[in-house]
Write a structure and sequence with these properties.
7 helices, metal-binding, alpha+beta
Length: 293
């Protein structure tokens, strides 16, 4: 039985990439992967808990280069709730995880969002995600006041004016970011050795991050929600229930998996339970996951 991931780190030369836990979810696997079946999950039962649910890690990736401090995604925030027949969610430990690295929120110089689903924006402000705040509520303060906040323009426009439960609270998240958010695009360097990689499908402006360091011939790709669990390495056709464009998400995932069949490429799956860092092994009969920890 696998548990939500704890703190873990990979070093590439002088650059470190550290998973900082914020919380976790426990999901009904066939509900969130509609193409899957109980029989299919029986083949991957080692990833399920005693209740038959799939544990899902939630947190941020801290990328520290020689002179930069970057956070990729901002977790759930202070929440504890359940969606019947789908999933339970609990979060709130990100700032404590950051403090264990010797950092305060003021030390973060860049926040980059892979996308704006609620479990990736939770610590944007000091207001917990949830139902839209009452009209006229004052904007809350940004949790990381000195940081640039970066997102794809297509992602920002997709959620502007909406109040879907899976997206950002427009008052608690997009409101405070207005005037502060900066748009980034495919191939753009946001820090030394940290480059944006467009990976649309899960959402229109979904992006991943590619991390390199001149002192190491390897690279690491922070996936975002291209994949939600290690099982999708082998079952790449199992799309996620909240994929905005399922066919595009599947094509993006398959193309990236083929590229990941390279021993010098590590991947970081922020929702992977157990071990968030690993590699994709080339298929013999089918692809397999190999933990890097």
């Amino acid at each position: 039985m696998v548990l939500p991931a704890s703190r873990a780190q990979v070093r590439l030369g002088a650059t470190t990439v550290t998973f900082l836990p914020d919380g976790h979810a426990r999901v009904v696997p066939t509900a969130v992967f509609p193409a899957s079946t109980p029989t299919g999950w029986a083949t991957h039962s080692e990833f399920l808990d005693a209740d038959g649910r799939l544990p899902v890690s939630i947190g941020s990736f801290l990328v520290r280069t020689r002179d930069r401090v970057v956070l990729v995604d901002l977790g759930l925030g202070q929440v504890d709730f359940e969606v019947p027949d789908l999933a339970s969610f609990r979060g709130g430990t990100l700032l404590r995880s950051l403090a264990k690295e010797g950092l305060a929120p003021e030390d973060v110089d860049t926040v980059v969002y892979t996308h704006l689903h609620h479990d990736h924006v939770g610590w944007t402000t000091d207001v917990a995600p949830g139902p839209t705040l009452p009209e006229g509520s004052a904007p809350s303060a940004l949790t990381f006041p000195n940081a640039r906040h970066l997102v794809a323009e297509a992602e920002w426009k997709h959620w502007t004016g909406t109040a879907e439960v899976i997206g950002p609270d427009p008052v608690a998240v997009q409101g405070p970011l207005s005037g502060r958010v900066e748009f980034v695009e495919d191939g753009q360097d946001i820090a030394p050795g940290v480059r944006v990689r467009a990976t649309p499908g899960h959402t229109p402006g979904h992006q991943s991050l590619v991390v390199n360091d001149p002192g190491d011939d390897r690279r690491l790709i922070i996936l975002g929600d291209v994949m939600h669990c290690q099982v999708q390495v082998a079952e790449s056709e199992w799309g996620f229930v909240f994929d905005d464009a399922p066919a595009e998400a599947a094509a993006t995932r398959e193309a990236l998996l083929t590229e990941l069949e390279d021993e010098r490429t590590l991947l970081a799956g922020g929702h992977f339970a157990g071990h968030v860092f690993g590699r994709v092994l080339p298929p013999v009969t089918r692809r397999a996951w190999s933990s890097a920890e």
